[in-house]
Amino acid sequence: MSEPVYLDYAASTPVDPQVADAMDACLRDPDAMANAAATHWAGRAAAARAQPAREQVAQLIGARAGEIVWTSGATEADNLALVGAARFQQQRGRHIITALTEHPAILESCRSLQAEGFQVSYLSPNGAGLVEPESVAAALREDTVLVSLAHVNNELGVIHDIAAVGAICRTHGALLHVDAAQSAGRESIDVKAQQIDLLSLSAHKMYGPKGIGALFLDAERCRRVSPLLHGGGQERGLRPGTLPVHQVVGMGMAAELARARLASDPPAILALRRRLEAGLLALPDVQLNGSPEQRSCHIVNVRVGGVEGESLRLGLRRFALSSGSACAAESGEPSPVLRSLGIADHLALSSLRISLGRGSTAAEVDALVAAVDATSQRLRALAPA
Amino acid sequence: MDYPAAVLAHFAAPRHAGELPQGPGAVFSGRAGALAEGVVVSFQLRVLNDSIQALTFRAYGCPYTLAACSLAAEGLQGAPVALLRDFTIGQVADQLQVPPGKRGALLRIEDALRSCWRAWDNSQLSRSSASRSDP
Cβ–Cβ of A346/B38 closer than 8 Å? Predict the structure, then answer.
């Protein structure tokens, strides 16, 4: 196998060296070793070490430091947002709105709420993979307490008009939760301007460490949710557990770097994405899944006709890419997201999600295009007419 | 997914894939599967004196399916055509270490080969009935 190429930045990103350095320094610092919840001098030192990170993450999304709650990742943040907010708000109503195209962390949280008696409306996307603000408005009911929609869809890369959905939810009174795991550091986020009440973040999707994420809760609109974990009173009682100071420091540094590079990273990655799209879409029977325009800089999702998906991926095995959400990759089933767009199962199975990042190069993109061309030609020549 | 070395070898260089080479004898074909199932298999064979002179395949399917077609095609060169009637893919699947979840698709190989046999058998029937009706 020729040199391996990583093109799955939507699944995870490498830790930035500056992040690793900050975490390493924290782990080796005797002043940061204590339990940050302890009231003695050592505990206060550890808490002081963690505090700037809350500020760094808040600044990335236009929030205040006091509005950030640390979690183990975006999956936990999504669970806490949906289940926690729904349970806390249930006296007001028991109806939730989300989309069929959401990440399993959202869909499975909704299913668990349905088992508790909540009602969930799963909105279908349009042909471009987007849930239109008008369909959110049409689905709102008197008893709707929560709407959850990803900023950037993790499989297609399409960008939802969150500000428009935010305005609709604010007028109605329902809370708006946004999964921003894919958009943080790639799209500008301003929770106040976009009228977002809850927002999930993951460190490892923005060159930070795995095992740490955050949930933003708007101080005025959604100060409290029902905690999912029970224990000490850490994180305002919303998420108990000893603060992993080195993880928090790592996520803070990743957020600061993402903010600093917001003007330079996305345009460079977008140029590569355009090169990749131009190459792939010039090949026979390769088509884009999802909106060609309203899309994040880093994700390309294409279906390759006339070839079986598993054989296609074996032919491309030197490239780390996926056919859907990495969190659902083991099922071997066609992607529910692609199915919801009306794409036939065999084409959903021969679809590729390619995602680019800071380390991606034009040579890697060109090599992938050449490999898709060679593999698909070879497999089509083998297939019956 | 990790594949056994034999599957990777057949996938990289399938044996007896594509067009049937020219030669003496009658040509028969058979096909099974559907795109919606994720597997389509077709075989062509040339028969002379009731034995397979040449057999080739075409397939749309997973790497195990492609490798199994290749290995089956290799093993059937020169075999009596009657063998296709009761051909089972089990031995090929064992040789390639095909996992249980992937064996279902391989049944289409049996179906396509049986369909080849049926085409040949029908030709034998029509030949014998034609000879019976001769004065």
Answer: yes
DSSP state string for A294-342 = SB-SSEEEEEETTS-HHHHHHHTTTEE-BSS-GGGGGG-SPPHHHHHTT
Q: What is the pLDDT of residues A16-31, one digit of tens each?
A: 999 999 999 999 999 8
Helix, strand, or coil (residue A238): coil
Q: In this structure, what DSSP letter does residue A80 have?
A: I
B32 has a chain A CB within 8 A of its CB: no
Q: For A382, which of B36, B59, B101 is closest by C-beta distance?
A: B59
Tell me if residue A68 falls in helix, strand or coil: strand
Domains of chain A: 5-13+263-382 (3.90.1150.10), 17-260 (3.40.640.10)
Residue A331: pLDDT band with limits 50, 70, 90 = low
Give the pLDDT confidence of A19-63 residue by residue, as tens digits: 999 999 999 999 899 999 999 999 999 999 999 999 999 999 999
The Cα B29–Cα A384 span in angstroms is: 12
pLDDT digits (tens, 9 = 90+) for A299-315: 999 999 999 999 999 99
CA–CA separation, A64 and A55 (whole Å): 7
Nearest CA in chain A to B37: A346
Give burial (CB, 10 Å; 0-12/13-18/19+) of B25.
middle
- The whole-number average pLDDT for the span A327-340 is 75
- Its CATH architecture, for the domain B5-126, is Alpha-Beta Complex (3.90)
Q: Does B104 touch chain A (CB under 8 A)?
A: no
Chain B nearest C-alpha distance from A28 (Å):
39
- Check CB contact of A381 with chain B, cutoff 8 Å: yes
The whole-chain average pLDDT of chain A stands at: 95
Q: Catalytic annotation on A26?
A: no
